[in-house]
Amino acid sequence: MAWWVVVVQRLALAALVLLVACTGSTVTGSKQPVSTGGQPPPSSVSPAPARCPKDLGRFKNHSVRGVRHTLVPGDPPVLVLCGVGKRVVVEGSRVHSLAAILNALKVVPPGNVYVCPQDLGPIYGLFFDYANGHVLLVTVDAGGCRVASNGRRSSWSDHSVLAGIRTLLRSS
After folding, report:
1. Which of 53, 63, 81 shows the shortest CA–CA distance to 151?
2. Does the pLDDT at position 127 exceed 90?
3. Which pTM value belongs to this model?
């Protein structure tokens, strides 16, 4: 990947972080929702899941078209971000920016086996909610190989993606 592509990705992520910090978001703990001043999602899209699942591996993405060709296909208007005891609802342009950054990551070649050192980081669950009611889970592993995956397609994540996710979780 060219150095300027990495710079553009990081600048886009920095803009996303600033946008989140300036506009607020809706955050919940493991039990009760707490509003922090963010606008409610469009009435046609209900943020799902209502609670973050303990086992992300049980969630299936088979109903979302295009998951073999892109990490986050289409144009989901709402994102539910689950990580380390928090649930954050993100909307609008912030969702589109994060999806674009994830889609720009380098694809992990299929069929290869990787041994990942120090797989100690958390796994974040990014639930992209679509207007048709479908939900797409993209997991982002913060340790080991740092892979982002929708279950059908995987990409190499990087520090800027993880920093953006952590900023969204802290922005509450």
Report:
1. 63
2. yes
3. 0.73
